[in-house]
């Protein structure tokens, strides 16, 4: 009757866990399990982690993106004629294109903020805040009204960015060469300030006509011009070409301090950040370097907005309210009487947000383009390739100096030898004259010595004594 009762192995199979028993770490995994007729039920659902899945996909996408980026970068560099040398003509041209992209795209993207800022500067009581202003503009002028002035903004700041970044790189290198390596390091901040001021002076000449049209388009409700070309043609028809440049002096007053602060503070902040971060600049990835550029640019933009805001208010007021033929100083005095000192700071919070975002994005785009073209990012420590080149140049200069010194020494030795030979010839001729005098003992022989000194080529024969 033993077959009526279940055995021990059958009982274990019935009451065992359906998920199976996991072997312990200490247990021997190679040992085979005991054979049985009953199999444990397998797991229907494997372990799944959404976090790990997202991380894996992100790594895969980033690897694919970097591969595509490197391919495109290699194509761009080959199209430019191979790897571009730093501080060459092609390098400055590439920086010009990078500045065009950085400024043109970012300023156009923040046109809605700029529109509210300009209208609040012209009339501080027009809007209470940004969202209320956009709501009113949308109800009255539609979605197109929120982007009023995007055309002159894009063209003007594209031209300005191209000149500003291209000339900044050029003047920075030129002034550093003039100062010398020791003074360039010692007075680094002064070098950044002078290079950025020189670049902005030229860039504002390209920006001024478009800025005048933009301010008039944004200040008028509704806009008096259909577009950029329509605005330029109408202004020149009424006021001539001078009407487009009547805001040039206040534009210089706004943009030059702004750019000086933008470039000098950015370079300094980047250097400070890399000094406090572990490792060197070259140890970080391209994405990390552009992230540092964005953060440094945003902090620099806050300082820029505070420094240049009073002049920005004056530019908006002059372009909107200056009468035809009114002197610059008279117009400035009249506007200041109307708005007062507090009026110079109208719209500052909006401008801090706008300029901070703008400056951060500009530096990020510019440095990203520089990486794309195979250049190091702006600011921080100099790359090792540049240091090696500098050492090679110094060695070449030392070799040239040594060669020049050797040549000078050889020339001096040759001159000394020639002088010694001449002296020996003179001594031999004088000795010959004295010997003749001793033999003859006449007065005419003394005259012979005089003739030897004056005319050494011919020696007359002495007369016989009487």
From TrEMBL:
GO cellular component: mitochondrial inner membrane
Molecular function GO labels: phosphate transmembrane transporter activity
Membrane topology classification: Multi-pass membrane protein
Bias (Basic residues) ranges: 387-429
Transmembrane portions of the chain: none
Start and stop residues of the Solcar repeats: 90-174, 187-272, 288-372
One Pfam family in the UniProt entry: Mito_carr
Gene Ontology BP, a term: mitochondrial phosphate ion transmembrane transport
Free-text function comment from the UniProt entry: Transport of phosphate groups from the cytosol to the mitochondrial matrix.
Protein family membership: Belongs to the mitochondrial carrier (TC 2.A.29) family.
Name used for this protein in its record: Mitochondrial phosphate carrier protein
Lineage, top ranks: Eukaryota, Fungi, Dikarya, Ascomycota, Pezizomycotina
């Amino acid at each position: 009757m033993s077959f009526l009762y279940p055995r021990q192995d059958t009982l274990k199979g019935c009451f065992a866990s359906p998920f199976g028993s996991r072997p312990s770490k200490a247990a021997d995994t190679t040992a085979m399990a005991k054979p049985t007729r009953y199999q444990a039920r397998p797991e229907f659902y494997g372990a799944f982690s959404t976090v790990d899945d997202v991380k894996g996909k992100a790594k895969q996408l980033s690897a694919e993106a970097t591969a595509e980026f490197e391919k495109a970068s290699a194509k761009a560099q080959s199209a430019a004629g191979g790897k571009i040398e730093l501080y060459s003509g092609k390098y400055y041209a590439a920086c010009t294109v990078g500045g065009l992209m950085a400024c043109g795209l970012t300023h156009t993207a923040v046109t809605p903020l700029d529109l509210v800022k300009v209208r609040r500067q012209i009339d501080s009581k027009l809007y209470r805040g940004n969202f209320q202003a956009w709501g009113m503009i949308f109800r009255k002028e539609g979605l197109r009204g929120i982007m009023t002035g995007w055309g002159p903004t894009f063209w003007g700041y594209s031209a300005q960015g191209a000149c500003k970044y291209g000339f900044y790189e050029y003047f920075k290198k030129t002034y550093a060469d003039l100062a010398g390596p020791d003074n360039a390091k010692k007075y680094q901040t002064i070098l950044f300030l002078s290079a950025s001021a020189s670049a902005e002076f030229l860039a504002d000449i390209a920006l001024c006509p478009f800025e005048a049209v933009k301010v008039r388009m944004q200040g008028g409700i509704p806009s008096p011009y259909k577009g950029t070309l329509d605005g330029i043609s109408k202004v020149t028809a009424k006021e001539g070409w001078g009407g487009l440049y009547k805001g040039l002096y206040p534009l210089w007053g706004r943009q030059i301090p702004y750019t000086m602060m933008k470039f000098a503070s950015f370079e300094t902040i980047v250097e400070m950040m890399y000094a406090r971060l572990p490792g060197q600049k070259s140890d970080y990835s391209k994405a990390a370097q552009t992230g540092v550029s964005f953060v440094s640019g945003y902090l620099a933009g806050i300082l820029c907005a505070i420094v240049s805001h009073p002049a920005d208010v004056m530019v908006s007021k002059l372009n909107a309210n200056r009468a035809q033929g009114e002197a610059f100083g008279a117009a400035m005095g009249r506007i200041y009487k109307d708005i007062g000192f507090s009026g110079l700071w109208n719209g500052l919070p909006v401008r801090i947000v706008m300029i901070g975002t703008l400056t951060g994005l500009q530096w990020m785009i510019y440095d990203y383009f520089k990486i794309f073209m195979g250049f190091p990012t702006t600011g921080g420590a100099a790359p090792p390739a540049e240091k090696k080149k500098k050492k090679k140049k110094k060695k070449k200069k030392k070799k040239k100096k040594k060669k020049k010194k050797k040549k000078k020494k050889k020339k001096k030795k040759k001159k000394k030898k020639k002088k010694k030979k001449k002296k020996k010839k003179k001594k031999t001729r004088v000795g010959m004259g004295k010997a003749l005098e001793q033999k003859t003992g006449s007065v005419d022989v003394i005259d012979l010595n005089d003739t030897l000194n004056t005319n050494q080529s011919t020696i007359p024969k002495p007369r016989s004594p009487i």
